[in-house]
């Protein structure tokens, strides 16, 4: 746990339903070696203190005084003390060597050794094999699950769960392609034992490199050696089913099916890394019979054993191979039409007319069973309904009175809930499988739906249900309206519409939109809705736009169906990662980094549009931290840019959600990876709970909003006021971004009085502008009760932008859409950008923020008196200084906002490249409105010189003609404009002087540079108030 890779971390061991740590008393390299071998690594590098290298654990300390010889199969096989006398400060950690860093052949790597490269874990990746001193790849021609099984077995994994293209899932390799046309049966010891074309013989490229995904388990070993007691499944149609075979003293043998039951099958499946067993069967009935020895007979497992060898059994048998045992395990990845994977204690309603009513069934150890109605009441029913996502229960009843009775086991009896429990399994009951009931006493419930105020009929208009599916989470969509259930037409129906339906039924999300006639069955009766247009955020389907109730042009062959994710979690990936999981990448520690979210088998990033401290807090709490310290742009924070899909945009959270997918968001985006969102999470400290040193806050001044106030920083357990010597907008912008706002409006506001108190003060903060948080700047702490008393000036006051749309830009004027004066939004009012040194790099940021590929040129207006109503106030952003790489103009350094500056020294305009999209724009010199790039390839030198001379002559002639024509333009005022101070008549004033694009306003350089500019004369613009 908490290591920087899967090969290192704090050691934790699983026992009786919980994970616990291991004490470091007597812990040495032999103990570490056993752990690393058990996890599939070849050896251990170090045995360390977890508190020193990683982090301390919590909960139980399960093992102490370990003494391993180094040859044990599992840590539990080592000698250890029954009780621990340790604290978590003594938790142990290990660093394992990885299979990828093997030594060359001279150091002992045998030909035929395999490894998996470039996967997200040690159980997946591109297949590479070692031969004659080199690692090489394997071609995917004829490669199938049997070949993958051999590789996974060779690496110590129990089985293979997938064959994939390395190019699509991981990365293509380099170097030799060593094997092609593999033909494994699945029971070979090594890949080299399989038939193949011959070493280095192939007709492939690296685009055909193959990858595999192995199932994981607690018992894995290096190489081809299997420990006694290992199990495998043979001759099934998938890795999760087959004849059971057990390994003993160098050979595989079968297990007799005498006394064979679901508990025995469950142990086998869990030993192989599957969550549970579906069925215990005779191999002869479902698969094929084995040959060779029969090792186990009369197996009797409780179901909690770690391996089949731990169960009671006879080592001799009176069986024939016609009695070989087989199992069906719950697959790690299940198809939509296959059985669902549920956790023990999950509940469902069966046999009702809708998803909110039916016979109660509970899931336990791989199968569903009923609940007896002894003591069954409304409190018990309420817990069931809430567990299923409904707000409450309407009735608790006997299933026999309203629904069909069940079959199979009766799992719970004498259930007594208070009504506040999270799951039915949390309530008091007699115990699993302990009852005195028959199925005529099965319990049932009717839950209330998510829509309140039912009509007389009891079902409100707009209620939805799923019909004719194999479970309550899928089926044909039906909606209730004016006393009737009717279907929904599939015209324009998409995943957003399905999401609203699934949410309305209490499921977390939708995983599929299907044709009801293909997947389920056509409906009958009215078709009530057509041309639905949901955003995915509506409370009910009736809230979405549609053609109108009963208005459609469809037949029942167009009835739509949906498949919702189950209430337990979204569909897991091979590695078990549920959709909606989050992680932080690129940070220097586990509590910071670029936000990535998991969806349908891969990780993607989140765009920082609308990204704020509330959204960051949801991410941090989802990861187990208390809250967020800062919401950031990942690239600017140094976390780097992502490479895969951008999954979410415009995320808006209240801060109370339990995961990011519960927030409002858009799946369509207009972002690139320079806009990836990042966070810094709060790590609890022992002195101040969740407040970490370096945190900042704004202390309200009277009735001021939370976006402005006196600045304080948390240092050594105390909030200290920050004084203003040397303070500027660089620090203010950093503080606002750290607090989740987009930027600062102002700082050191004149006329605002404040007097922060503390035992010390922060006399000076010096920032370069490259820091992510204020604590990264140079901070000077001195003694003193306040800034005033310590003669350190006054307190720093910071005012942050508080609206999500603040900082939006547009181009205004009569120019084309891609050209105009830059206007910027502040609190609902469009204002100007004031800048006497407006650079192309500044324009680049504005153009990219607007979706263009870059800036073509920038210019300034010199006619401020025509800027709207001279007496009206409008906001202005002063002196932005951009590097050109920022995603928004507000991310650039600037001199703050003003309501008084009328941009009398110049306001800014830009002409963007007409192409939309993220193209790399040509960086032109300052003020060059139009450049000419000539690419000459394979032309004789004399021709090149001749063409260059002609071009220079053309440019000079056009430049003179343009300047002549420009002076003949009629521009208000009617007097022809002069080229600023250089040729102004003696009686002309500066008021009627217009500047060329990027041109100087006179001075010694004016004459020498004037030919470089293409004059563009500016007219007045009015700045509208929204």
Helices and strands, with pairings:
Elements: E1 8-10, E2 12-15, E3 18-22, H1 29-38, E4 44-49, H2 50-53, E5 61-67, E6 79-81, E7 92-96, E8 114-118, E9 124-131, E10 134-138, H3 145-154, E11 160-165, H4 166-169, E12 177-179, E13 210-214, E14 231-235, E15 241-248, E16 251-255, H5 262-271, E17 277-282, H6 283-286, E18 294-300, E19 312-314, E20 325-329, E21 347-351, E22 357-364, E23 367-371, H7 378-387, E24 393-398, H8 399-402, E25 410-412, E26 443-447, E27 464-467, E28 474-481, E29 484-488, H9 495-504, E30 510-515, H10 516-519, E31 527-529, E32 560-564, E33 582-586, E34 592-599, E35 602-606, H11 613-622, E36 628-633, E37 646-652, E38 664-666, E39 677-681, E40 696-699, E41 708-715, E42 718-721, H12 729-738, E43 744-747, E44 760-766, E45 778-783, E46 797-800, E47 809-812, E48 819-826, E49 829-834, H13 840-849, E50 855-861, E51 876-878, E52 897-898, E53 907-912, H14 941-967, H15 1006-1009
Parallel strand pairs: 3-5, 10-12, 16-18, 23-25, 29-31, 35-37, 49-51
Antiparallel strand pairs: 1-7, 2-3, 4-7, 5-6, 8-9, 9-10, 9-13, 11-13, 14-15, 15-16, 15-20, 17-20, 18-19, 21-22, 22-23, 22-26, 24-26, 27-28, 28-29, 28-32, 30-32, 33-34, 34-35, 34-39, 36-39, 37-38, 40-41, 41-42, 41-46, 43-46, 44-45, 47-48, 48-49, 48-53, 50-53, 51-52
Task: Describe the protein's architecture and organization.
With 1026 residues, this protein is α+β, with helices and mostly antiparallel strands. It is 13% helix and 27% strand. It has 15 helices and 53 strands. Strands 14, 15, 16, 17, 18, 19 and 20 form a seven-stranded mixed sheet that branches. Strands 33, 34, 35, 36, 37, 38 and 39 form a seven-stranded mixed sheet that branches. Strand 40 (696-699) and strand 41 form a beta hairpin. The C terminus is likely disordered.
